[in-house]
C-alpha cells in the first residue's frame, strides 16, 4: 500500500512587493525522498524551504502535513536569546532523557554545547541549529546550507549520518561533492518555476543545459513566426483588413507570448586582471614555528610557492589555516623561522569574515568609499582595473540592480555579500590572491565562473576552503594542517590528498613535490624506491609532453567550437573529433605516468 506524502504544497503563490516568487506551485515530498533544492542566489530557495517548514505564509495555496508527521527546519540565524548555552538551545525540544542525543551530534559536528550563547560565533550558532535538528530526528528534515562553517571532517561526518538516515530530507547546498553523494532527486527553481527530476544532483547541470537549449529553440521558433506574421501584416493588411483582423490579433497574441517569456539571468561578468608580473619566487618559508599558549600551529614548516601555483590549505576548524596564511604574507610574525616574499607583489584578499564590507553602508558607499577604487572628485564612479566606471554599471556586472545599489549591505544574502566582496576584489589588479573561504553561500553557477577565472589568472592563488570539489578543480597542491604542528604538502587537490595521506596521519614523513620543482615542503626523510636512469629522464620529459598535448587539445577544442563546422565540413569535423579523442587518451596516460613516477621519486 502506498504511503501518504510527508508534505504537500498545492497552488502556492507568493509575492514580496514585486514580481511573484512563486505562482501556482505544486510540490510533494514522499517518505524516503533525498532531494537537492538548487537554483541561483536570489531565486527563492530559502523562501521555498521556509514555506515548506510553515514559517512563511503564502498569499494563496495550501500546505498539508499529515497528522503525526514531524517536519524539522535548520534555521540559518536562530534566535537563542532565551537560552544560556548552545546545548540548552539544541536540547530545547527534547525530553530530558534524550539529552544525550545532543552530546552525540555535537561530537561529530565539533561544537561545545556548554558554549555560552553570548560568546558564540555565527558559525557556532549554525552548528547548534544543525545539532538541534539532527538530535530531534524528524521524519522530514529541511537543511539550508548545512555545510557552511563546517570543516571537511565534520562535513564527511554529516554526509555519513544523512546517508544512513531513514528520514526524508530536502537539502540546499553549494557543495557539489555533498550533493552528489546524498541526493536522489532534484528540485530546480528557475525564474519562479520549480521543476523536479527523479535523479540526484550528479546529472543536474546536463539536465539544466538541455532545458535551456529547448527553451532557446522554442524562443527562436516563436521569433521566426512573429517575423513572418509581421511581414504579412505590413504587406497585405490594407487589402484584407476586414477579412484578416483575426490574424492580426493572433500576431498580437504571439508578441504577448514573447513578452511573457522571462529571460534567464546571466552570469556575473567577473574578471580578474593580473598586476605586474611577480618574481618567479613568490613565497619562501623556512623553519616556521608558531604557537598560542599550549596550541601549536606549525612546527619546522618549509614551503616554497612559485608564480602560478594554486595552493589550498585544509584542516579542521581552529587548526590554524588562516594564521598560517597570514604568516606567509607577512601579516603575522612567526615565533621562529623566516618568510621571504618575492618581488613586485600586489596582493588582493578575500576575507571569510567579510570585514572589508561595512554592513550599515550601502553597496554604493562600500564601493565608492574604498580609497583604492575612488575616482577623484566623482562620487558615482569607481576605478575598475585602471578605468573609471559608473558604480551602478559595475554592480550590474555582478548581478545587482540599481535598487540594491542604495540598500545597506546588511540586507543582502550571504551569497550576495560574497559576490559584492568579489566585485571589490576584482576591481584591482593583483598578482597574488588570498582567498579565505570564498565558496561559502555562492551558487553553483558563480562557483563555476570563479573556478574558470582562477584557471585563467596569471598570478598565484592561496586558498582556504572546505569545499572538496572546488579544491579539486582549482588546487595544484594541498597543504594539510593535521594538528599538533603537523603541516604537510601534497601534490594535487583534495582527492589527491585523500588518496595519498597515510594512516595514521602521525606517520607522514615523506618529502612531497608538486608541479616538478615549483612547490616543495620538507619533512623527515624516508627511504624511497628510487628511479632508474631511464625513468628519471622520462620524468623530466613528461611535463613538456603534457604541456604539448594540452595545447593541442585546446586548439582542437577551439576549432570544433565552430557551430557550422559539422554541417559545412563533416570530414574535417570527424577528423578533428578523432584527433581530440586520441590526444585526451594520451594526456590521461601521460599524467598517470607522471604521477606514478613522481610518487616513487
TrEMBL record:
It comes from Paragemmobacter amnigenus. This is ATP-binding cassette domain-containing protein. InterPro entries: AAA+_ATPase, ABC_tran_C, ABC_transporter-like_ATP-bd, ABC_transporter-like_CS, ABCF_ATPase, P-loop_NTPase, Val-tRNA_synth_C_sf. It comes from the Bacteria. Signal peptide: none annotated. One of its GO terms (molecular function) is ATP binding. Transmembrane segments: none annotated. Residues 7-216, 283-508 form the ABC transporter domain.
